[in-house]
């Protein structure tokens, strides 16, 4: 088969190799996407040129993985990953080959790859599709199948276990039976994969349309227990009331219901109820309750995200959303109550918290729901904020300077006083005027805070 729709960029790139008598093949995900007529921007190449020879072919080359024969060529503003045809030696650490042997055979190179759909190549000189492992028919049948013996493939490299789950979710493919059985048998190999690599794959899984497919596959093959044991605790934990699913399934479906381009909200949805099994107790009526689960979930999520080397920024955002996910707005909330909520959650996080709630509801009933109460809450918040009411210490009409001028010492006392002033303004925004706040400050200080200071 010939590929006729190859972008000019790739043909020109191949021509540079051909001009010096080298061969160059497009490989990996780009071929998968070309054959499936999907668009792609991430290009991987294989060549018979040695890394030092590739470095001489182009002006700008970064030796990104030179030990394994990979360099990155900067070509017309694109990063092209070029790897010399390899045939891997034995793997004794379940992750890296003990030795890498360069070869001049593209077939040998394709045979060391993980799945059939990932082992096709396009010869850039002829546009011929090479498909020695039946990738095209598996792509058509939407199947992920290990090349050769699955147990051997997964024993060589434990990362492939998670890659299978990732491709299953990304492409919405099924894993072929023997491959899945191989994953189950080799599940312990995941233990030799670094936390950083696992995080990288999870991040890709969380950007798929339905990440639940990957997590269910992890559960079926015993991987989930090894990398996200906290989630497994929710297995079989039934929830009464509106809930249709156990805690694990609810978590996975909630994750599906969060926006796919928002990693933090997807993580928060996945982990928001992770503490429920530990918070569970039975009421006198026999109905389970989960009081305080948001705090337990938050601390479990924090530990989990740190273990998997997610950044501090991601960890704190996710934990913040989890901590506040249990709000229950009622029509009779006063403006002051709404302002207090906004101060507690932070204006920047309100919309994200609403998206988390939408995901949570999706994960409860199995589809999106138009939440009228939530819409009312949003309106109420907008009305309150729109009225330009003070919402943080910064928005108070007076600050530390003015208080110091009244003779109030700087330090913890002043901090407490400022917070009390904010409380007053949250209750009654009309108090947010310089003279009124000074009056309140003096009264508060002389009536109780001053004594506090003396003690
Ligand atoms: P994407 O770029 O969308 O993540 P991809 O299939 O291109 O998908 P890469 O990680 O870019 O994945 O790797 C490129 C190719 O290298 C793969 O298609 C596969 O042929 C091979 N490959 C990558 N990682 C492994 C691995 N751990 N074991 C075997 N082959 C691998
Ligand atoms: Mg790629």
Structure overview:
This protein has 455 residues and is α+β, with helices and mostly antiparallel strands. It folds into four domains: 8-135, 2-Layer Sandwich (Beta Polymerase, domain 2), CATH 3.30.460.10; 142-227, Hydrophobic Seed Protein (Orthogonal Bundle), CATH 1.10.110; 245-387, Hypothetical protein af1432 (Orthogonal Bundle); 393-454. It has 23 helices and 13 strands. It has helices spanning 8-19, 29-35, 51-57, 106-111, 135-140, 150-156, 159-171, 177-185, 195-206, 212-221, 224-227, 229-232, 247-257, 263-271, 276-279, 293-307, 312-323, 335-345, 347-365, 372-386, 400-405, 412-427, 434-454; strands at residues 24-27, 44-47, 61-65, 70-75, 78-84, 86-88, 100-102, 121-123, 129-130, 143-144, 174-175, 281-282, 288-289. Strands 3-4-5-2-1-8-9 form a seven-stranded mixed sheet. Helix 22 crosses helix 23. The longest helix is centred in the C-terminal third of the chain and has 21 residues, at 434-454. The model has no long low-confidence stretch (mean pLDDT 92). Bound molecules: adenosine-5'-triphosphate and magnesium ion. Adenosine-5'-triphosphate (ATP) binds next to helix 7.
List the helices and strands and how they pair.
Blueprint: H1 8-19, E1 24-27, H2 29-35, E2 44-47, H3 51-57, E3 61-65, E4 70-75, E5 78-84, E6 86-88, E7 100-102, H4 106-111, E8 121-123, E9 129-130, H5 135-140, E10 143-144, H6 150-156, H7 159-171, E11 174-175, H8 177-185, H9 195-206, H10 212-221, H11 224-227, H12 229-232, H13 247-257, H14 263-271, H15 276-279, E12 281-282, E13 288-289, H16 293-307, H17 312-323, H18 335-345, H19 347-365, H20 372-386, H21 400-405, H22 412-427, H23 434-454
Parallel strand pairs: 2-5, 10-11
Antiparallel strand pairs: 1-2, 1-8, 3-4, 4-5, 6-7, 8-9, 12-13
Bound molecules: adenosine-5'-triphosphate (ATP) and magnesium ion.
């Amino acid at each position: 088969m010939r590929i006729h729709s190859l972008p000019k960029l790739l043909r020109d790139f191949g021509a540079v190799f051909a001009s010096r008598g080298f061969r160059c093949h497009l490989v990996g995900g780009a071929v998968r996407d070309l054959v499936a007529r999907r668009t792609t921007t991430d290009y991987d190449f294989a060549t018979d040129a040695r890394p030092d020879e590739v470095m001489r072919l182009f002006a700008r080359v970064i030796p990104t993985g030179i030990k394994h024969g990979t360099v990155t060529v900067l070509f017309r503003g694109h990063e092209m990953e070029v790897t010399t045809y390899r045939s891997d030696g034995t793997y004794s650490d379940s992750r890296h080959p003990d030795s890498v042997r360069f070869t001049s055979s593209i077939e040998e190179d394709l045979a060391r790859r993980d799945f059939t759909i990932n082992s096709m190549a396009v010869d850039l000189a002829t546009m011929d599709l090479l498909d020695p492992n039946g990738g095209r028919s598996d792509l058509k049948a939407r199947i992920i199948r290990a090349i050769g013996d699955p147990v051997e493939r997964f024993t060589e490299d434990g990362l492939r276990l998670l890659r299978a789950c990732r491709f299953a979710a990304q492409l919405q493919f099924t894993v072929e039976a023997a491959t899945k059985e191989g994953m189950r048998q080799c599940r312990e190999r995941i233990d030799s994969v670094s936390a950083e690599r696992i995080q990288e794959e999870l991040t890709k899984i969380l950007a798929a349309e339905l990440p639940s497919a990957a997590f269910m596959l992890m559960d079926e093959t015993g991987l989930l227990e090894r990398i996200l044991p906290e989630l497994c605790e929710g297995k079989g934990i039934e929830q009464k009331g509106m809930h249709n699913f156990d805690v694990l399934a609810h978590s996975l479906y909630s994750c599906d219901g969060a926006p796919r381009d928002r990693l933090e909200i997807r993580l928060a949805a996945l982990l928001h109820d992770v503490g429920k099994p530990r918070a569970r107790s039975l009421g006198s009526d026999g109905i389970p309750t989960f009081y305080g689960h948001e705090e337990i979930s938050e601390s479990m999520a924090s530990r989990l995200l740190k273990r998997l080397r997610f950044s501090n920024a991601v960890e704190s955002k996710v934990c913040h959303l989890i901590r506040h996910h249990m709000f229950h707005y009622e029509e009779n909330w006063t403006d002051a109550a709404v302002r207090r909520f906004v101060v507690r959650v932070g204006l920047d996080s309100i919309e994200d918290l609403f998206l988390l709630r939408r995901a949570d509801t999706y994960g409860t009933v199995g589809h999106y729901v138009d939440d009228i109460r939530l819409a009312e809450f949003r309106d109420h918040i907008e009305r309150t904020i729109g009225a330009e009411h003070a919402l943080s210490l910064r928005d108070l009409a007076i600050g530390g300077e003015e208080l110091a001028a009244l003779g109030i010492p700087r330090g913890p006392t002043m901090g407490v006083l400022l917070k009390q002033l904010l409380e007053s303004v949250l209750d009654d925004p009309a108090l947010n005027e310089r003279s009124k706040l000074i009056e309140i400050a003096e009264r508060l200080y002389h009536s109780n805070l001053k004594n506090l200071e003396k003690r």
